[in-house]
Amino acid sequence: MRCIYTVCLTSSLFIAGTAAADTSQNYETCLLNAVKTQSGSLTLSDIRLRCSSNIAVIPDNTDKPQPALVSQRLMHERDTAFNRFVITPHRMNYFLPLVMTDSINNTAYNNSQWVGKMKNAEAEFQISFKTPLNYGDLLIHNDGLFAAFTLKSYWQVYASDISRPFRETNYRPEMFYLAPTPWTPFGTNTWVTVGIEHQSNGRTQKLSRSWNRVYTDLIFEKGNLAFSLRPWWRIQEDKKETATSPKGDDNPDIIDYMGHYEINAAYKWQDYEFSFTGRQNFSTHKGYGELGMTFPLWGKLRGYTKYSTGYGENLIDYNHKQQRLGVGISLTDLL
User: Fold this and answer.
1) What's the rounded Cα separation, in Å, for the pair 294 and 271?
2) For residues 279 and 295, what is the distance between their CA atoms, to the nearest angstrom?
3) Catalytic residue among 71, 112, 198, 260
4) DSSP state of 185
5) Cα–Cα distances in Å, from 257 out to 104, 253, 275, 279, 285?
6) What are the backbone dihedrals phi and psi of residue 113, each rounded to the nearest 5 degrees, phi first?
7) Element housing 7 (H / E)
8) Where would a tag sit more exposed on the chain, N or C end, judged by fewer CB atoms within 10 A?
9) Taking a C-beta distance cutoff of 8 angstroms, is the pair 278, 260 a contact?
């Protein structure tokens, strides 16, 4: 179809007059304007193509500062939060086909046929996602209430003698409230999170491990660096009547090893991302440290390697000290 002069002129004047507006808003307004003013000679496909072409040539404001990495992630998540075809990641999603440890935890499996047969090499993977529970602002602008779930498994894939079992799987459902704060120390942006979570391994009797905690998370960002301080309070459970009782606290001394807080940091340099996680109980002097790095691999896949040392790699190993080094792939980054 030929373009009618008045339609082309109207569209051009509209585009020129709104060049500073947001691109997506320009496109929608262009569509509406063209439908109202055109005489009927243009098809809907013609209008869409014309508006897309006009919007594409609007110069980008390169002088406008880009948001820091945490802000970018939150904006992208809000854009797709209610798209049923998009799963929003929470923590990292990764698969490490090879993880080496200097000390596999045989003590926890003393009454199992696995004892003495597990390998120091295993596979590890994590699946983590979240979903918003509110459509608009709750208390302040850009706050939100979320439900999240994280599954983390340790697979003895190289232990053929015991039929390659899943040595440990941790389930971690949680609910939390996230809100930005007006506090900007040293030019940073800040958010605060308040949440409650349950973590367990779904096992019975002597292999059962679980705890519940209330936490808060203070998050800072500046440029390519993000840092968070996450203290928590454990919800106390009743003492077990007997060691094999299904009711009661499976691990009353877990705080001695897991501590009362966690520090997380992430830094992005070019297309590489570096992460750190640390915990410490200053009374018992027991803690945990983890270093991670992701790097470009192919398409959406990224290479991922991590090293950890200390107590609490997972629930069954909460009181077991070891060093671990793993390599694999990551589907999502921290930032």
Assistant:
1) 8
2) 25
3) 198
4) G
5) 17, 7, 22, 9, 8
6) -70, -10
7) helix 5-17
8) N
9) no
Choose among 321, 315, 329: nearest CA to 167: 315
What digits encode the pLDDT tens for the residues 52-107?
655 554 444 555 566 788 888 888 888 888 888 888 999 999 999 999 999 999 99
Q: What is the pLDDT of residues 232-246, one digit of tens each?
A: 999 999 998 877 777
pTM above 0.90, yes or no: no
Judge whether 212 and 200 are in contact, CB under 8 Å: no
Per-domain residue ranges of the chain: 5-56, 69-330
Provide the CATH topology of domain 69-330.
Answer: Outer membrane phospholipase (ompla); Chain C (2.40.230)
Decide if 11 is catalytic. no
User: Any idea how long the chain is?
Assistant: 335
Which position among 12, 160, 163, 200 bears the catalytic label? 200
- In the residue annotation, 198 being an active-site residue is answered as yes
3-state class (DSSP) for residue 73 = helix
Question: Cα–Cα distance between 219 and 190 in angstroms, integer?
Answer: 5
Using an 8 Å Cβ cutoff, are 190 and 181 in contact?
yes
- The answer to whether the beta carbons of residues 176 and 206 sit under 8 Å apart is no
What are the structure tokens assigned to 309, written together? 């040392």
Amino acid 214 reads V
Q: At what angle do helices 23-37 and 44-56 cross, to 10 degrees?
A: 140
Give the helix/strand (H/E) hosting 47: helix 44-56
DSSP classification of residue 35 = H
